[in-house]
Amino acid sequence: MTDRAEQEGVPLCPGCFAENDPDADFCRQCGRPMSAMATVDPLRRVQSHGYWWRGAVHGKVRPIIFWGTWLSMGPALLISVAAAIWMVHGLSEGTARGSLSDFLQLFLFVGLAIVLCVLLGTMTRNYLAKTADAEDEET
């Protein structure tokens, strides 16, 4: 903690310890939410969630974030892949109508599966790299 922050009561970011304005909702350096308004206001809440997603995809990933993301997003990935396969099978067999709404649903399921694969794949790669780095440091 800096002397100025101690003397003047300047709030510090809990993540990067950067000095911020007293009325700041987010850290000016790392973007971490710093106030209750950051989680209550709908637009600021989106930015708060973005901070979590950026933390999960970039840099070091803690085990709690890794497993929590897999537990929350893994089932969604499986369901979207299963739904896309089911729709493709229905379209190829002729049991589905083949309407625009069927193709739109297929597009949405495939798009969701791709986004989740990229997110979970990137986060897993970062987590495994961090784990390998920690093992190298121990030896």
Secondary-structure blueprint:
Elements: H1 3-8, H2 37-40, H3 42-57, H4 63-93, H5 100-138
Helix pairs in contact: 4-5
3D architecture notes:
This protein is mostly helical and 139 residues long. The protein has two domains: 3-55, no CATH class; 60-138. Helix content is 69%, strand content 0%. It is built from five helices and no strands. It has helices at residues 3-8, 37-40, 42-57, 63-93, 100-138.
Tell the overall outline.
flat
Gyration radius, in Å: 21 Å
User: Major beta sheet, specifics?
Assistant: none
Q: What percent of the residues sit in helical stretches (DSSP H or I)?
A: 55-70%
SS class: mainly alpha
The tally of helices reads 5
Poorly predicted ranges: none
Strand content: under 5%
What is the N-to-C succession of helices and strands?
A: HHHHH
Task: Output the keywords.
139 residues, mainly alpha, 5 helices
Structure in a nutshell:
This protein is mostly helical.
